[in-house]
Design a protein that fits this description.
- This protein has six helices and no strands.
- The protein is mainly α.
């Protein structure tokens, strides 16, 4: 088994995804889109956390990614690319989409996998 395919690596990356996702949810809880976009501090932190989450998703071992087809992999790639390469309205839309669509859906899916595939989340086997 190669280093990047160890179960502990998958569990650690999934933990980082969970942590960043929860940070985004906490930062955006109760905020309307206009409120988030008007707050430079929150907006910047949400973008940072979304970037961390997208990076963590990209670093999951391929076998783990294949075992979780319900995650919107294309949506995450597109959102991350938009945050990195675009500005203005397109970047704002990507930020809002990531925070209010991708993050809740991804965390919900991970919760389901935690129940059905607990071995992915175990640090020690």
């Amino acid at each position: 088994m190669t280093r990047q395919n160890r179960p502990t690596d998958t569990a650690a990356v999934l933990g980082a995804i969970q942590q960043a996702g929860e940070a985004v949810l906490g930062l955006t809880h109760g905020l309307a889109e206009v409120e988030l976009l008007a707050s430079g501090t929150k907006r910047g932190e949400v973008a940072r956390q979304l970037g961390l989450l997208a990076t963590a998703l990209r670093h999951l071992p391929r076998d783990a990614m294949r075992s979780m087809p319900e995650i919107d992999w294309a949506g995450w790639r597109g959102m991350a690319s938009s945050l990195d390469q675009l500005g203005g309205l397109a970047r704002d839309e990507a930020l809002w989409f990531g925070a209010h669509s991708l993050v809740p859906a991804t965390l919900s899916t991970l919760q389901q996998y935690r129940a059905t595939r607990p071995e992915l989340f175990n640090y020690w086997n």
